[in-house]
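Morning run. Coffee first, then this:
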Amino acid sequence: MTPDDLRSIIASGLACDHLEVEGDGRHWSAVIVSAAFEGRRPVQRHQLVYATLGARMHTDEVHALSMRTYTPAEWAAHHH
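And here it is:
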């Protein structure tokens, strides 16, 4: 699996305003900006992302995923 593959999987299951994925095939980091995160705690945001990955979370394809999640407003504030 490549970063592009993982990005595509997440994007197909979650409407993202911004999505960055980096990784080496086992350990991944992602920055995800989605309006779906509005009003959700970080753990709930992560669960939304994990839901897009489904069974892949339980295989070596996505061994470890660290993510930073933002709403569009949080992202705008973070980058200005």
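The radius of gyration is 12 Å. Good start to the day.
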